[in-house]
Write a structure and sequence with these properties.
Number of strands of chain A: 2
Radius of gyration of chain A: 23 Å
Order of helices and strands of chain A: HHEEHHHHHHHHHHH
Shape of chain B: globular
Number of helices of chain B: 13
CATH topology of chain A: MetI-like fold
Largest interface: A-B, 100 and 98 residues
Helix content of chain B: over 70%
CATH superfamily of the largest domain in chain B: MetI-like
Low-confidence stretches of chain B: 1-5, 275-279
CATH class of chain A: Mainly Alpha
Strand content of chain B: under 5%
CATH architecture of the largest domain in chain B: Orthogonal Bundle
Strand content of chain A: under 5%
Structural class of chain B: mainly alpha
Mean pLDDT of chain B: 84
Number of domains of chain B: 2
Number of helices of chain A: 13
Mean pLDDT of chain A: 86
Oligomer: heterodimer
Radius of gyration of chain B: 24 Å
Order of helices and strands of chain B: HHHHHHHHHHHHH
Distance between the termini of chain A: 46 Å
Number of domains of chain A: 1
Helix content of chain A: over 70%
Low-confidence stretches of chain A: none
Strand order of the largest sheet of chain A: 1-2
């Protein structure tokens, strides 16, 4: 049996071979490139050590994009979590008709991201977009949804929430369905109010799902590209330029591939640190809160 | 919990029901609006207040697929998606099978490593692909984009298939082993037939991921291999006189996905959290 089990390792070969070829090798190559001043247009490449990193970290544009990313990430994840959780609880209460609602509410999430972004662009376009045309009918002067630096951020957050709230809803709804109903009944018999049941019974039981869904959403916000690219392209100016959009500009518009690689590595480090902190914090809050 | 037994609870249920109806309707406005736009003549599309009642026309749905290159882009999308699935799913299934059969202490680290890969910014992968593609003169060819999509798809496929293989009892392999089957025979004859539904689900999810993928397609394709998302992104949104046409295109791109998703409903949560649709 041991020998039989050892034979199983051969099954990993095709997959891990592929991963080494298309994932590990390119990623190591990107890290290697990040130590070079490399303009793809001329093909000239000079080793500059940590030069790209120093350049980037002392640059206002990077910090600006970092701030934008954090505002958009936390703004949208907060909206998604609150709305998604409320929807999940509502679905859980409804039993019978929940199925229809869950399918309808899920639609925005399954649309191709680029197409979803276009839908929202047609809603928010100035003057002729649905939102503006409706507001103008009532003689309300609408703000410039995509052209004003502050409103553009709000629009991007709402767009992200439109696409991803359904995912949060589904994960939490699935977790709710796995909940031990005897706990809820016990709380009801003890005369706990709905709010207390939610706070002391439901939320603690859902903590693993909540940590999971917030973590994957934060990871994704940091690398999500399609929505912002189509909606605002990072504009107006650099008002909605996230790290991802900035990396795109550096790498594929300015062809500074060395510097862009360095920025990619920095992003990876930031995401990793962020996730570690969040998981620690949430775990602690959960363990410390009950005892 | 018997929700029906108290009049107060029943009233709350009604309030929730109505609130959900309103929310769902508002939430779907962008979709409904796009469908309406695709059926409108431009003179109905640009009005204040927005026109709700108008004479619908399918003209633009037909025009976008006949008078533009959308059929060509669809072919590109299909070739690339199919290529990705045919490489990614078999390789991923083999690894996932082994992963579900080796001892837990060896499988655990591999699984967490795969999950960590999910955290990597795609940009960090896109740059080397672009640089290598330029050197090898492979930009705007199918294989390059397929390989890139396999890279983002493989960890997901393994992760998803692993769940399916875990549901197939180990006793079956052990019985096969005692009967003298080699690993390969046991997998092929005993396990594979049972894993087929799971593989179909993984294949459909991988298909969706590749069909929806935008970043790599934007960077690695050109005039010869442009996929649907890239085409619609450059086509739509810019010029408002083509709104009806691009709305028709956008709806057309969306429809097959809605169908596939309805097929996949039961597995949605598992697949989506693994990063199926929005890589």
């Amino acid at each position: 049996m041991v020998r039989w089990q050892r034979g199983l390792w051969l099954f990993f070969l095709p997959s891990f071979g592929l991963l080494a070829l298309v994932l590990l090798w390119p990623l190591s190559y990107a890290v290697y490139l990040s130590f070079f001043d490399y303009y793809l247009g001329s093909g000239e490449r000079t080793f500059i050590g940590l030069g790209n990193y120093v350049d980037l970290l002392t640059e206002a544009r990077l910090w600006n994009s970092m701030r934008t990313t954090i505002i958009i990430a936390f703004g949208s994840v907060a909206v998604e979590f609150l709305v998604g959780f409320a929807l999940a609880l509502a679905l859980y209460r409804l039993h019978g008709s929940a199925k229809v609602f869950s399918v309808l509410l899920f639609l925005p999430h399954i649309v191709t991201p680029v197409v979803a972004a276009l839908f929202l662009k047609w809603m928010l376009a100035s003057n002729w977009g649905f939102v503006d045309a409706t507001l103008l009918t009532f003689n309300i002067e609408p703000p410039d949804w995509l052209g004003d630096p502050v409103w553009a951020k709000v629009s991007v957050i709402l767009a992200d929430a439109w696409v991803f709230t359904p995912l949060v809803m589904m994960v939490l709804y699935a977790a709710l369905q796995g909940l031990d109903t005897s706990l809820l009944e016990a709380a009801q018999i003890d005369g706990a109010s709905s709010w207390n049941t939610l706070r002391h019974v439901i939320v603690p039981a859902l903590i693993p799902a909540i940590i999971f869904v917030i973590s994957i959403r934060l990871m994704d916000v940091f690398r999500f590209f399609d929505l912002i690219y189509v909606l605002t392209g990072g504009g107006p100016g650099t008002a909605t330029e996230t790290i991802t959009i900035y990396t795109y500009q550096l790498g594929f518009r300015m062809l500074e591939v060395g510097k862009a690689s360095a920025l990619g590595v920095i992003t990876l480090i930031v995401v990793a640190m962020l996730l570690l902190t969040i998981n620690r914090g949430l775990n602690k809050a959960y363990r410390g809160g009950d005892r | 919990m018997s929700a029906q037994s108290y009049p107060g609870r029943r009233r709350t249920t009604w309030v929730i029901f109505i609130a959900l109806c309103v929310f769902t309707f508002i939430n779907l406005t962008p979709l409904i609006w796009a469908v309406l736009t695709s059926l409108k003549d431009p003179r109905d599309a640009f009005t204040i207040p927005p026109t709700i009642i108008f004479e619908p026309t399918l003209k633009y749905h037909i025009e976008v697929w006949t008078e533009n290159d959308f059929v060509f882009y669809l072919m590109n999308s299909l070739i690339i998606s199919a290529g990705t699935v045919f490489i990614s799913v078999p390789a991923g299934s083999l690894a996932a099978y082994a992963l579900s059969r080796i001892p837990r202490r060896s499988a655990g680290p591999i699984l967490s490593a795969l999950f960590t890969i999910r955290m990597f910014p795609h940009m960090l992968l896109a740059i080397p692909f672009f640089v290598m593609g330029t050197f090898l003169n492979m930009i705007d060819t199918y294989p390059l984009l397929i390989l890139a999509l396999v890279a983002i798809n493989q960890p997901f496929t393994i992760w998803l298939m692993h769940c399916f293989f875990l549901e197939i009892p180990r006793d079956l392999d052990e019985a096969a082993a005692i009967d003298g089957c080699s690993n390969w025979q046991a997998f092929r004859i005993v396990i594979l037939p049972l894993a087929r539904p799971g593989m179909t689900v993984a294949a459909l999810f991988s298909l969706l991921l590749s069909y929806n993928e935008f970043l790599f397609a934007l960077i690695l394709t050109g005039t010869d291999t442009k996929t649907l998302p890239v085409a619609i992104a450059s086509f739509g949104g810019e010029d408002i006189s083509s709104w009806s046409l691009s709305a028709a295109g956008a709806i057309g791109i969306m429809l097959p996905i809605v169908l596939v998703m309805l097929l996949l409903q039961r597995h949605l949560v598992r697949g989506l959290t693994a990063g199926a649709v929005k890589g």
